[in-house]
Every structure is written in structure tokens, then in C-alpha cells.
Amino acid sequence: MKLYRFITGVDDSEFCHRVTQALNNGWELHGSPCLSFDAVKGQTMCGQAVVKIKDGDYTRDLKLGEQ
Question: Which Pfam families does UniProt cross-reference here (predicted)?
């Protein structure tokens, strides 16, 4: 099965650590990152899609962040 996650957060080192952790757990980048500015909070938000191929059948109960 092919798994998909979209990691989001404030554009800071913590976001980079979350993406790095996913990459080191076998996930691969899928497309380019995206940035958006939240004018209310005054923060730049970032998102990055990641995918992973894994044996087994997909179910909605699967905890993607734990894969």
C-alpha cells in the first residue's frame, strides 16, 4: 500500500525536525513544500507532503504518524 501524509506547522526548526524524522522513518518527499503567511498570527506556515510504500492493506484505522 502507498501511504500519504501532509505535515504542517510554523516554518521553524521544529517543522524541519518533523519532516527530517519522517524521512528517517522511511517516508519520502512528495512534491514541493508550500508556504503561506497567516496575517492574524504573523507567522509563516509550511507544509510538506510525504509518501511511503508499506506491505499490508490500507484501513482507515491506520495511524499514519506511527508508520
Answer: DUF1737
Q: Compute the half-sphere exposure of residue 25: CA atoms within 13 Å on the CB side of its CA.
A: 14
Q: In the chain, at which residue ranges do the beta strands (DSSP E only) sit?
A: 2-10, 28-29, 34-38, 43-53
CB of 46 within 8 A of CB of 22? Answer: no
Question: pLDDT tens digit string along 23-43?
Answer: 999 999 999 999 999 999 999
CA distance 58 to 8: 23
